[in-house]
Amino acid sequence: MLRWIVAALLAAGPALAQDQWPSRPITILGGFPNGAGTDIYARKLAEPLSRALGQPVVVDNRSGAGGNIASDAVAKARPDGTLFLLGTAGTHAINAGLYRNLPFDPLRDVTHILLLGDVPNVLLVNPERRPQYRSCADVMAAARARPGALNYSSTGNGASTHLAGAQFAAVTGLQLTHVPYRGQPGAMSALLAGDVDLFFNQTGPSIGPVQQGQVRALGTTTLKPVQALPGVPTLAEACNLPGFEVSTWYGLFAPPGLPPAIQARMNQEIARIIGAPDFRQWLVESQGITPPEDTTPEGFRRIHEQDIARWGEIIRKSGASVD
Predict the structure, then answer these.
(1) For strand 198-202 and strand 151-154, is the pairing parallel, antiparallel, or unpaired?
(2) Are strands 247-254 and 26-30 parallel, antiparallel or unpaired?
(3) Residues 250, 116: Cα–Cα separation, whole Å
(4) Record's family (predicted)?
(5) Per-residue pLDDT reduced to its tens digit, 176-233
(6) Binning pLDDT at 50, 70 and 90, where does residue 18 land?
(7) What is the pTM of this model?
């Protein structure tokens, strides 16, 4: 009889834990330094999510290896609902084709929570250090005149800031030199110091420097203009590159094996938060991010699968690789 009672309690343990979730603080891990677009988004999300769940939501960043350090940590973590990852198309689609030996499987070693939005990039130059670059045509002419001489910073190998530059070089036939930095601060500082010529940065962290006149935006990597950057054309238009688009995404993952009840609750709460008018306005007008149309875990997984194949082809054609 005693053995039966113990066995029943042990079997009920996981169900009881799910019913009581969350009973401890929650951490959202990011793979890039403070100030990166992922960090900005996670911190904006943390406060309303904490109120909704009744537990503190802490944002922590473990940068390095193109986001792989944080991704691997979540892939190997216990699926108890205390650790989530604000991942990107870079960490979980681009890196699948860019790195030969990842310590985790970008598709299988996750639980999909929901897509958080599409994230474009914008081509930036320093108007003080490079006043001659007033348009995309100026950049292209300079690159053709001195093949390989123009360089661009990125937030790390495999980041969208890297692949946007690589794709731009591939479709234009230009030779550009990639200079990776460890995250947003280093890549932007290099542009401001004149150490690099170009930076295909994400829109969110670019808006402030553009508005302050520190950098000049020459074009976005979207098919339509970005509302948060009024007056800035698309690169497809500015560079006469019909159909040119390099857009990535942010998404929330959990460790593999997360109980479905926790997955569903987390999805429901975040979908409600990012669907609220004020949060959508912040995404569109302050970050240049397009809110997702499909906020289901299944929809997120489909996009994830498609992007692994899409970015694999882009990487193959562009010849981009980890240095």
Answers:
(1) parallel
(2) unpaired
(3) 5
(4) Belongs to the UPF0065 (bug) family.
(5) 999 999 888 899 999 999 999 999 999 989 999 999 999 999 999 999 999 999 999 9
(6) low
(7) 0.83
Whether 4 has a pLDDT exceeding 70, the answer reads no
Closest CA to 18 of 257, 254, 262: 262
Residue 240: predicted pLDDT: 94
Same-domain check for residues 187 and 226: yes
Per-residue model confidence as pLDDT tens digits over 278-319: 999 999 998 999 999 999 999 999 999 999 998 888 787 766
CATH number at residue 213: 3.40.190.10
- Where among 198, 218, 238 does a domain terminate? 238
**Residue 243 domain flag:** no
What pLDDT shows up at residue 318? 66
Residue 258 lies in a domain: yes
Q: Specify the pLDDT at position 196.
A: 98
Cα separation values, 92 from 33, 190, 272, Å: 17, 27, 24
The answer to whether 123 and 136 are in contact (CB under 8 A) is: yes
Whose CA is closest to 194, among 132, 256, 237?
132
